[in-house]
Amino acid sequence: MADIAVTELSKGLRDAIAKLDASDNLESVGVVTRVGDGVAWVHGLADAGYSEVLQIETKSGIIEAFVLNLMEDEIGAVLLGSDQTVSAGDKVTLKGEVLSVPVGPELLGRVVNPLGEPLDGGPAIKSKQRGPVEREAIGVMGRKHVHEPMMTGIMAIDAMFPIGRGQRELIIGDRQTGKTAIAIDTMINQARENTGVVNIYVAVGQKLSKVAGLVERLKEEGVMDQTIVVVTGPSDPASLLYLAPYAGTAMGEYFRDNKQHALMIYDDLTKHAVAYRQMSLLLRRPPGREAFPGDVFYLHSRLLERSAKLSDDLGAGSLTALPIIETQAGDISAYIPTNVISITDGQIFMETDLFYQGIRPAISAGLSVSRVGGDAQTKAVKSVSGHLKLGLSQFRELASFAQFGSDLDEATKAQIERGQRLTELLKQHQYQPMSIWQQCASIFAVSEGLFDKVPASNIKDAQKALLTRLNSEHAKEMAELNKGSEKLEAKSDMGKLIAKVATTVAKGFEG
Amino acid sequence: MQGKISRRKLALYVADAVEAKRKLGTVLSEVAAYLVDSKRTREAELLVRAIEDELAARGIVIAHVVTARPLAKELEKAIETLIGAREIHLDADVDPSVIGGVRVETPGKLLDATIKRKLLALHQAKI
User: Fold this and answer.
1) What are phi and psi of A6, to 5 degrees?
2) Interface test with B, best of A1, A4, A8, A10 (most B CBs within 10 A)
3) pLDDT band at B117 (very low <50, low <70, confident <90, very high)
4) pLDDT tens digits for range B29-64
5) Are B99 and B43 within one domain?
6) What are the chain A neighbours of B107 within 8 Å (beta carbons)?
7) Is the minimum CB–CB distance between B117 and chain A shorter than 8 Å?
8) pLDDT range class, residue A6, cuts 50, 70, 90
9) B103 and B92 in one domain?
């Protein structure tokens, strides 16, 4: 037996040598010299490239890693799996490609890990295409200014800090202030309003119980059909946490590049930076401020730059990003918060104090801003929300001032009362995003003074009554208003109609 | 005290000595003494690889060959053509567990044409 095998092989080998260029038969190999904490050091493989995938042959199969450090005679690679089975002396080969994930409509409705492997117990994902995890952002000529609205369904945001398709709007605040809630409401609103926007929720090191609850909720709301959830939990290796946002973005870019619109939610980038810090320190890169490596700014800027509104030539698709950052005790001047604030096109700042005062969503009117969304606001919303932000910030200031004395002039009193009504009006329960017409009619009723006789505590009830009546008696007009293409003014027919209904409704709630 | 001598410099030193046909034992004991003195004995394995790499770059290749049966003269020649270096040192090993075929390992390169490898590949592909 053995005789035959050996002679056949040597003949085969001779043939192969005769036929092929000799060097083709020798594959490049390296060897693992050290391994630990999710990082493997490899000797050899001089032709490895940055971010290239390595395959490590362990006793229990192949484990992949990607190159992050290229040094004179050693490669620092981060393992994409457990480091338990990798040992010194294991053979390493190049896969010959950079990291990529499956992309396309096949992923919709699925829960996957950053490598595109299903976590929902469903069948393996068979996509026609794969997209590179790290990809250069689109250039200047491929872009267009942000001009279409991305309605969140949250009145305080859509009226005061409007978000446009292709914008990057940061959601920042302490723990337990409702950051994720805003993101979820926005996803739900896309389904309710049939905007056709694809949601991609990226959980970076989030508790798996929280993610499970979120997926359950999205299914209940019927949003899952147009959603991809990319999950990494706290027990996953740091390399997967690091990759998750990039992998999610690659999946979103497919829709952006195919004339569709996608919404990315990165929950949250603080944990992403921490995972990158861990990897960098283990790769022995020098630490800087707060022990983060020197390129932590680039880490987030290259990620968020991939969100864009494409030019008409490229199909006018868009990728909107809602990154989330968690602050410690409201400190937005820490390293990562300032970085991401400067990268994004505005931020929504959530305040703990407001949250516990019962003002939910706890959006701070003074510290939040949207730099480009104004152009994206629909005419209807814009016409009613013109001075809302200014009025609300002035009210907060006046209200704190007015605590010291009660002898105020009539004008100030009126402003404070209007402010209290507005604050009350902008409170909104979770999972209840509002349509354009609901937002417009509500704000119109309060800002035009139609509810001036309704005490602040009754505003929510009055608003509910107004919306119910408008919906049941004037459904056709409201459908028209929902298009948002017409200004809503006191002089217009629509304004007169709402004013008439609001005045009748208000009578029932006067205190 | 002098600064740390890099692995690359040490490898260059040994490679120079090999090319100059100096007595290898003396050179290696020098290097070993240096490693012990500077508490860098853990790097010995890496240093050996660095030396092999450096020699390979100069055309002196040390090849580890593993076969199931003792190496045939014919095959030896074929391997030498395959490597195609100026000076080739074959370090042949017989290991029946590879079943058949040949495995040639040079610094940074590998040709694994053993039956064992093919069977493993088949096994993995089946999974």
Assistant:
1) -65, -45
2) A10
3) confident
4) 999 999 999 999 888 888 888 898 899 989 999 899
5) no
6) 44
7) no
8) low
9) yes
Question: What's the token pair of residue A493?
Answer: 């027919």
Number of domains in chain B: 2
Domain extent at residue B15: 1-58
Residue B49 touches chain A, beta carbons under 8 Å: yes
pLDDT at A22: 39
* A61 contact residues in B (CB cutoff 8 A): 124
pTM, two decimal places: 0.89
Q: B82 and A72 in contact by Cβ < 8 A?
A: no
Is residue A12 predicted with pLDDT exceeding 70? no
The length of chain B in residues reads 127
Contact yes or no for A9 and B101 at CB 8 A: yes
Task: Give the A:B interface size as CB pairs under 8 Å.
Answer: 80
For residues B127 and B71, membership in a common domain is answered with yes
pLDDT greater than 60 at residue A207 = yes
Interchain pair A26, B111: CB under 8 A: yes
A430-449 pLDDT, tens digit each: 999 999 999 999 999 998 88
- CB neighbour class for A269 (10 Å; exposed up to 12, middle 13-18, buried from 19): buried
Burial group, residue B60, by CB count within 10 angstroms (0-12, 13-18, 19+):
middle
Helix A459-473, helix A493-507: angle, nearest 10: 130
Q: Is it true that the peptide bond before A268 is cis, omega within 30 degrees of 0?
A: yes
| B60 CA: distance to closest CA in chain A (Å) | 16
Cβ contacts of A21 on chain B, cutoff 8 Å? none
Task: Kindly give the pairing relationship between strand A198-203 and strand A129-132.
Answer: unpaired
Catalytic residue positions of A, numbered: 371
Band of the pLDDT at A7, cuts 50, 70, 90?
low
Interface test with A, best of B71, B109, B118 (most A CBs within 10 A): B109
Q: What is the distance between the alpha carbons of residues A33 and A39, in angstroms, rounded to a whole number?
A: 11
Q: Which residues of B touch A71 (CB under 8 A)?
A: none
Q: What is the mean pLDDT of chain A?
A: 92
Write the ipTM. Answer: 0.82
pLDDT digits (tens, 9 = 90+) for A69-88: 998 888 999 999 989 999 99
Integer Cα distance of A63 and A86 in angstroms: 8
CB nearest B82 (choices: A10, A17, A61): A17
Using the Cβ of B73 and the Cβ atoms of chain A, whether some distance falls under 8 Å is answered with no
- Mark whether B34 and B69 lie in a shared domain: no
